[in-house]
């Protein structure tokens, strides 16, 4: 019997994950015989009140209402079941049936997803959405099927802000600070570009790391900063809107194709409906998070002028050049053009 070693080091995880996906190829995709309800376990690491948390609960509600008695969805929020990294392995082994993985974590499987992490490439969520709806964006959903990951849709969280012990009106204020970042080479490079010290760290470890001083700063959306209470252990949040956090709703293609056709088609429809609903809600959820942080009085929110924001953009622009050959200059140019286009 194949078992997973939960003590694998982070440096070895990418290779182990690749092996697990290769092993998953051995499993066939014959249609399931459904005697009882189809069970979909759906873990994630954010709080229920976040955009992803609400989208997952909405998915569960609609599925169980529309496919009553035929499909059961179990949502495990806030890392109750497993981490994001473990969920990739869990999907391959059939321990879970659906995940909404941060697009930043997929750069270990293909460089194409790094486009989402380039600083100041997308001015707002509407620009991100236009890119995701384009041919380039839709192609990403099936770009890692050979690794047993099939994307069904994209869900927004929101635009990222910098939180830290000092106001960051200029990039120079970030110099020397230890920043927690997701496991993304682009995110690491952007912090190095402004003189910071990037620390790759799991989301569930961030609050304690900020509290103890293991890291000084972090980048996140308003909803994550509020729901995970980062504002309680940081003095300032600077509204930079410098990057994007979003997720790819992902299944194992062999498992998905093994479902009875009528169930799979209905689930595809529900994912699309929930995605539209969730992405419409995300901006409001983040705005509410920002307002609650301000109302708490525990953190000062720094709002940049247009001139200050332009300085940040100029300081981080070299990251685009650094990753141009890796991501593809044409893909970056297409995303930039879509980001600048009007609705």
Question: Can you offer a commentary on this structure?
Answer:
The structure is a single chain. The chain is of the alpha/beta class and 343 residues long. It has 2 domains: 35-110 and 125-156 and 245-284, Bacterial extracellular solute-binding protein, family 7 (D-Maltodextrin-Binding Protein, domain 2), CATH 3.40.190; 161-243 and 289-338, D-Maltodextrin-Binding Protein, domain 2 (3-Layer(aba) Sandwich). It is 45% helix and 17% strand. It contains 14 helices and 11 strands. The protein has helices spanning 10-24, 51-66, 84-93, 125-133, 135-141, 185-193, 206-212, 222-227, 253-258, 261-296, 306-316, 318-322, 324-327, 329-340, and strands at residues 38-43, 71-76, 99-102, 150-159, 161-164, 178-181, 197-200, 217-220, 236-239, 244-251, 300-303. The strands form 3 sheets. A 6-stranded mixed β-sheet has the order 7-6-8-5-9-11, with helices on both faces. β1 (38-43), α2 and β2 (71-76) form a beta-alpha-beta unit. α2 (51-66) packs antiparallel against α10 (261-296) and α4 crosses α14. It is globular, with a radius of gyration of 20 Å.
Number of helices: 14
Largest beta-sheet characterization = 6 strands, mixed
> Total strand count, please?
11
* CATH class membership of the largest domain: Alpha Beta
Structural Rg: 20 Å
Q: Structural class, from secondary structure content?
A: alpha/beta
Specify the helix fraction band: 40-55%
What's the shape? globular
Mean pLDDT: 91
List the uncertain runs.
Answer: 1-29
Element order: H for helix, E for strand: HEHEHEHHEEEHEHEHEEHHEHHHH
What's the CATH architecture of the largest domain? 3-Layer(aba) Sandwich
């Amino acid at each position: 019997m194949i078992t997973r070693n939960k003590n694998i080091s982070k440096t070895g995880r990418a290779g182990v994950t690749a092996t697990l996906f290769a092993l998953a190829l051995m499993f066939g995709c014959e249609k399931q015989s459904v005697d009882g309800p189809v069970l979909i376990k759906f873990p994630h690491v954010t709080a229920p009140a976040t955009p992803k948390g609400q989208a997952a609960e909405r998915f569960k509600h609609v599925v169980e209402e529309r496919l009553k008695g035929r499909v059961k969805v179990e949502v495990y929020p806030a890392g109750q079941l497993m981490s994001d990294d473990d969920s990739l392995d869990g999907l391959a082994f059939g321990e879970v049936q659906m995940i909404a993985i941060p697009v930043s974590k997929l750069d270990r499987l293909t460089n194409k997803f790094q486009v989402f992490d380039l600083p100041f490439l997308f001015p707002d969520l509407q620009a991100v959405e236009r890119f995701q709806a384009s041919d380039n964006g839709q192609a990403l959903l099936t770009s890692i099927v050979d690794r047993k990951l099939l994307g069904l849709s994209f869900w927004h969280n929101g635009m990222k802000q910098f939180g830290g012990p000092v106001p960051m009106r200029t990039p120079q204020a970030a110099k020397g600070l230890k920043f927690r970042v997701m496991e993304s080479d682009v995110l690491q490079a952007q912090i190095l570009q402004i003189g910071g010290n990037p620390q790759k760290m799991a989301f569930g470890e961030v609050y304690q790391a900020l509290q103890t001083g293991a890291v000084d700063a972090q980048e996140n959306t308003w909803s994550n900063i509020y729901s995970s209470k980062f504002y309680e252990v940081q003095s300032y949040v600077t509204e930079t809107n410098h990057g994007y956090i979003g997720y790819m709703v992902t299944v194992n293609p062999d498992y998905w194709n093994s479902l009875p056709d009528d169930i799979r088609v209905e689930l595809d429809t529900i994912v699309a409906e929930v995605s539209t609903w969730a992405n419409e809600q995300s901006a409001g959820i983040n705005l509410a998070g920002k307002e609650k942080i301000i109302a708490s009085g525990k953190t000062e929110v720094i709002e940049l002028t247009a001139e200050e924001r332009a300085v940040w953009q100029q300081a981080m622009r070299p990251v685009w050049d650094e990753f141009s050959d890796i991501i593809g200059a044409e893909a970056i140019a297409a995303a930039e053009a879509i980001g600048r286009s009007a609705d």
